[in-house]
Here is the input.
Amino acid sequence: MKIGIASDHAGYEMKRYLIQYLKKEGFEVIDFGPDILKKVDYPDYGAKASMALSTGEIDRAILICGTGIGMSIIANRFPGVRAALCYTPFLAEIARLHNDANALALGGRIIANELACEIARVFLETKFCGGRHRRGSKKIEKLALQRFMK
Ligand code: RB5
Here is the structure.
């Protein structure tokens, strides 16, 4: 599974920590930046990873800013991207089981790095349960497509 990861300055340290953890766990990780700790705008890097997810270049995205809010907003603008802001492993589990979320947004200023790793692990290991929940995802895609066609 190919994981794309991106942050802004407020999520930079957590991004580095997560990259190490994910590689150790055997995931292929593509870093969409930034490469150094500097003040940046979260949409610039969030969009790069979200675009890669939207086009199928990566299978999952992990996006980190101060709160995770900005990253989830930008990610959800991209077709086929279903980003969920998760502060607990339980939210990550439900985001996968029920929402088939493919992007995980995290708040670098809100939770500890160790908790972020646990949330990411649950997010990457949990499968979409399908069934009646597939209807919800399909309705969202249909609405997004209608808006795009107008
Ligand atoms: C940056 O200071 C901060 O506003 C940003 O990381 C994020 O929290 C936006 O949603």
